[in-house]
């Protein structure tokens, strides 16, 4: 039996992004011993990349905003597959979470009278995103870290969880390796919170960082927890398309919130051509009204560029496919045009969108204050994840919680921009609180050494196979490439069946992956170990997407292009049935009458 270092905690948090840090702060504040593990360095979690802001109905810029409008917007955006109780909690609690962040030192942009400034974003009826220029995630991470460090939380950086440990059906910790020395470690805990983010690295074109290999999704699934809504992968409409080395990097929706418009190669604002019926009454009649909306005219309605991401992404896809795209396979996003309206436009753009200005200047040699950008859809966000209880964030496995992007329920079929950062705070806090409560009520389980030994043996497999084994980078590359082509923004049954066949073959090859070198900072080894997670989530996404025979939110089926009333009654729940994913329809959480009324009032 192996002898590895054992770290003892009441609550173990996996992930140091916004959700993980907020959960850790809350668990620690509840008086339990809290540890955080993160695959990368503190401060590097994906949350740091968030740009546009966090949605919270504070009503600082438009006093007509309140939790009811935010709730109804979130439900409409999610096409009513959301867990309505999560959407309600989120809308009600987000303002307090933002103000709390401010009290801990976050320096938000300000209104003229000194309140937190809020900006427009797609699908939000009123300006709602609290922000710090276009670097909101950086400020959020900085503030949470500063606050958390002083709570006595212990951090384990560059430490990757390989498997969750279970004792008698309950989660009792995790088994990990550290990147620096490549040594195994045991984390023994009374409760575990997964806050591992998304799965974007399963696709070729993505805005996501290297950490997003679906670890939390796969860990939970393999530990017997149910996943939900895995067919809903968000393709953000605006990623960079040129030069090739930067393809997929995000161009924040904030550009459109500040007045940026989308045009095809004929110069036409094509978004006016296709406005969904359920958004017609909220969308500008013409370009002038759209511009007035972005400048804060309360009598104007939003421009169609600020419709939900699923719709805008598909419209861009349509223009490109019809041969009306830009030279490098995207469309044009133009913020420079506002010089016709504002005398100091260039300075204004640099002030409002500093990262975008530098991103295009440095990576593409384009001055966005002078010329349009070229943009196209990029894999961005995972609506699906671990099924959790709305109040406590506990999964279907006792002692295992999930929050942030790796959790599911709040966003339904499509997430509104800005609703992730507030999700991290609202449900990160709840997960930390309820995990602490669970830990206080429960004794420590035993450490299942048979599970530890099996995980350690599996992890060392690639070294044993050595240079003769399959190249893990090649497998990862192939997976990303066909997932993009066959399970991407437009889906068809025959193509997804092909994807499943390819995944099955890659699984066999991944089991034979081999690497050379030693255990210290061995990238090949890390990639070989990530493959299992990437393949697991890719298969689950594909199976769920095949099962949902309709188009709704982020899922567009070319062979079932219409939304179906029948399918609107179900979420898809995925569990491990002896090594094969079992995809089952479960009824959408019923909306109680009082919340139904809120939705009706806001139509
Ligand atoms: C470019 C960009 C801009 C965005 N802008 C916005 C925005 O303006 N507003 C908004 O609401 N949303 C935005 N989003 C989405 C939002 O940033 C993410 O959904 C959110 O940050 C996810 O936070 P998280 O805490 O769930 O995960 P993360 O911040 O990704 O943290 C995950 C953590 O888990 C760790 N981890 C993962 N796997 C393991 C493992 N096996 N073992 C140990 N640790 C592990 C990672 O190291 C990391 O610390 C943006 C996304 C991108 C890509």
Name the bound molecules: flavin-adenine dinucleotide
**Any idea what the radius of gyration is?**
23 Å
Q: Give the overall form.
A: globular
Note the gap between the termini: 62 Å
Please, what is the oligomeric state?
single chain
Overall average pLDDT: 96
Tally of extended strands? 18
**Amount of beta strand:** 15-25%
Unreliable spans: none
Major β-sheet profile: 7 strands, mixed
Helix content: 25-40%
Output the structural class: alpha+beta
Count of individual helical segments: 16
Put the structure in a nutshell.
The protein has 603 residues and is α+β, with helices and mostly antiparallel strands. The protein has helices spanning 18-29, 67-77, 84-103, 136-149, 215-222, 254-257, 287-294, 309-321, 345-352, 354-364, 419-441, 449-465, 472-486, 493-510, 523-547, 593-601, and strands at 6-14, 34-37, 54-55, 118-119, 129-130, 154-156, 159-167, 170-178, 184-194, 227-228, 233-240, 261-263, 331-334, 373-382, 385-386, 400-402, 570-577, 580-587. The longest helix has 25 residues, at 523-547.
What would you say this structure looks like, in words?
The protein is an alpha+beta fold and 603 residues long. It has helices at residues 18-29, 67-77, 84-103, 136-149, 215-222, 254-257, 287-294, 309-321, 345-352, 354-364, 419-441, 449-465, 472-486, 493-510, 523-547, 593-601, and strands spanning 6-14, 34-37, 54-55, 118-119, 129-130, 154-156, 159-167, 170-178, 184-194, 227-228, 233-240, 261-263, 331-334, 373-382, 385-386, 400-402, 570-577, 580-587. The strands form 4 sheets. Strands 1, 2, 6, 7, 8, 9 and 16 form a 7-stranded mixed sheet that branches. A 4-stranded antiparallel sheet has the order 15-10-17-18, with helices on one face. α1 (18-29) links the parallel β1 (6-14) and β2 (34-37). α3 (84-103) crosses α11 (419-441) and α5 (215-222) packs across α15. The longest helix is centred in the last third of the chain and has 25 residues, at 523-547. The chain is globular, with a radius of gyration of 23 Å. The model has no long low-confidence stretch (mean pLDDT 96). The site of flavin-adenine dinucleotide has 41 residues, from α1, α4, β7 and α11.
